[in-house]
Write a structure and sequence with these properties.
The complex is a heterodimer of chains A (164) and B (99). Chain A has 164 residues and is mainly alpha-helical. Helices cover 75% and strands 0% of the residues of chain A. In chain A, helix 1 (2-24) packs antiparallel against helix 2 (28-48). The N and C termini of chain A lie far apart (62 Å). Chain B has one domain (3-92): Helix Hairpins (Orthogonal Bundle), CATH 1.10.287. Classes of the chains: A mainly alpha (164), B mainly alpha (99).
Chain lengths: 164, 99
Amino acid sequence: MTLEVFAFWAFAVVLVGSALAVVLSKNLFHSVLWLALALTGTAGVFLLLDAEFLAAVQILLYAGGVVTVVVFAIVVTERLVGTRLSQTNRHVVRGAVFAGTVLTLIITWIRRAPHPVRPDLGDADVTRAIGSTLLTQHVLAFELLAVLLLVAMIGASYYARPEE
Amino acid sequence: MGLHAYLFLAAVVFSIGLFGVITRRNTIGILLGVELMLNAVNINLVAFSRFHGQTAGMILTVFAIAITVAEVALGLALVILLFRTRRTAIADQIDWLKG
């Protein structure tokens, strides 16, 4: 139990710290690298919640795929921007106040919620359960997701096509 | 750790992402903030799923992750298109609809 508590706090500190670095970093490129750390920290939280499959997907798709694509986009769009502009707009104070208000509201609501007891999984295999329900009960949504990914891929390559 | 610890963590990450979306000037920076917010939602889904002993939340998370990846790919394609036509990736300068 103590190990779990320690791991939770370690992942929480990594996650919150790197999330703050993502939004506060002056250099957009550093932001993306901090985002990779934040997404890896989230994968750790998933591990604590016995979701090994989701942790693996998180690292493969986010920390691998998304970060690579974002770095590519930054390299393409920053090339012609000679002067290094400030990365934040004039709404910093208002943004902090608004985000703080939203956080206070969410925490107020959470504190009113009941405390469910964590059920013991025993030797149940979460990954197996996800796989079998995904391909039986949710198979239609699964196939639609495949179509969505194809459409997104075609759309993205249409928008980013080379100029005629 | 109880369910509330995970919910508080997700709430903090969500608010940080919201702050990033509001304050970033660069459209790619805004997209990074959106990523953080979606990530917080995923933590909530998995935590609820685990504490209620059902896999439905984890399956929803699989869909959320896949849709987020599609969103990032399309969003960055739009950023590149905007940059090509307007030579900027700053959200304040994308004001064509302002009469």
